[in-house]
Amino acid sequence: MKKKILCFVVALVFGVVVMPKVNAVHVTGDDKINYEGSNVTVEVVEGEENSYKVTLDGDTNQDFEIKSGEKVVLDLAGYTFKNFTESLAAIWVLDGGELTIIDSSEEQTGKIQKVGSGVSSAVDNKGILTIEGGEISTTVSGTAGVYNAGTLVIKGGTIKNTTENTWGLTNEGTAEIYGGNFTQEGNYSVVLNAKEMTVYDGIFSSEGEEHYSLITNKSKEDSGEASLDIKGGEFNVDESTPLFYNEGEDLIEITGGKYSKDITEYVKDGFELQEDEEGNIIVKEKEEEEEEKEIPTTPSVEAPNTIDRIFTFVIIGLVSLIGVISAGYVFKRKLEN
Asked: What is the Cα gyration radius of the chain?
């Protein structure tokens, strides 16, 4: 039953309907994000064309759209950014647009949250999205904190599914994860990967019990396009929660990281599982067995036998003695004559 429900929800998330953004605001134009009372400041970044720094001065509710050609750094500065229109995302990054999300606050309390209704996620990316700070989540069933159909790089921050029937991150593009916290509080997976994802680092964990898998790797229409490559990171779940859900031709390949459960079926050839002092499973590259090398030997010159040498000297001595006696005999005969 769980599997059927999971497949239905995956289909629902992938079948996202694009809603008209009637109240969308931007960094330029008449519908600026920094209107009076918005709690938003916009600065032009000198030396870079179409580049802007957007900083929150307080909590704000807006439908923020980054257009193609625009490059924006959004500093949450400890405040909360929510969507204005119930059915829409709080932030949209269009194809060709770039957004970097940071949080400069000392307590790191900045948030982006989807509230209301509809099928849009808190952050919807079809361009280039980099996340370095902030907590991103959704309260709307069937949606995600971050939906990626472009290029996504995560270096920090927190992505979580705080309520039932929500995802933390759904990926239909290319995603690279170098850090950050991914927390599963609701029943669905905190990460749903349907395309290409590489994990270099980060902490992935579930809180509570009765969850689906921590990470789901499932392509659209079972096309086999889902590829999850894990090179590092920490993955922790309770007794009842599987670490991964994967089937068909979709691929999970593990060459590093630390895990609270066995992941033998996903480990790439040439790597092995070991256990650390705390009982966690870690993945290490197998050490190559050294081949026994033949130690070259210097060919020895056979020493002559001592007895043979003595015998040779005796023969030579006898021959010399005979020669001397013969010469003396001849000399004596000559004198007698």
From this structure: 39
Burial of residue 47 (number of CB atoms within 10 Å: 0-12, 13-18, 19+): exposed
Query: Which residue type does 7 have?
Result: C
> Within the chain, how many helices (H) and strands (E) appear?
2, 30
Digitized pLDDT (tens) for each residue of the chain, 337 residues in all: 344 344 434 544 554 545 556 689 999 998 999 999 999 999 999 999 999 999 999 999 999 999 999 999 999 999 999 999 999 999 999 999 999 999 999 999 999 999 999 999 999 999 999 999 999 999 999 999 999 999 999 999 999 998 999 999 999 999 999 999 999 999 999 999 999 999 999 999 998 777 889 999 999 888 889 999 999 999 999 988 999 999 889 999 999 999 999 999 999 999 999 999 999 999 999 987 655 555 555 555 554 555 555 555 555 555 555 554 555 554 445 445 4
Place of tokens 């089937």: 247
185, 187, 191, 192 alpha-carbon torsion, rounded to 10°: -160
Residue 230's SS3 state is strand
Residue with tokens 């480990």: 267
Using DSSP's 3-state secondary structure scheme, residue 166 falls into coil
Q: How far apart are CA 185 and CA 209, in angstroms?
A: 9
Q: Kindly report whether the global pTM for this prediction surpasses the value 0.85.
A: no
Spatial contact of 77 and 104, defined as CB atoms under 8 Å apart: yes
Answer whether 38's CB lies under 8 Å from 24's CB: no
Neighbour count for residue 11 (Cβ, 10 Å): 12
What CA–CA distance (Å, rounded) separates 284 from 98? 36
For 83, half-sphere exposure in the C-beta direction (CA atoms, 13 angstrom radius) is 29
Main-chain dihedrals φ then ψ at residue 171, nearest 5 degrees = -125, 120
Neighbour count for residue 36 (Cβ, 10 Å):
5
Q: In what order do the strands lie in the sheet with 144-148?
A: 24-25, 63-66, 91-93, 123-125, 144-148, 167-171, 191-193, 215-217, 244-246
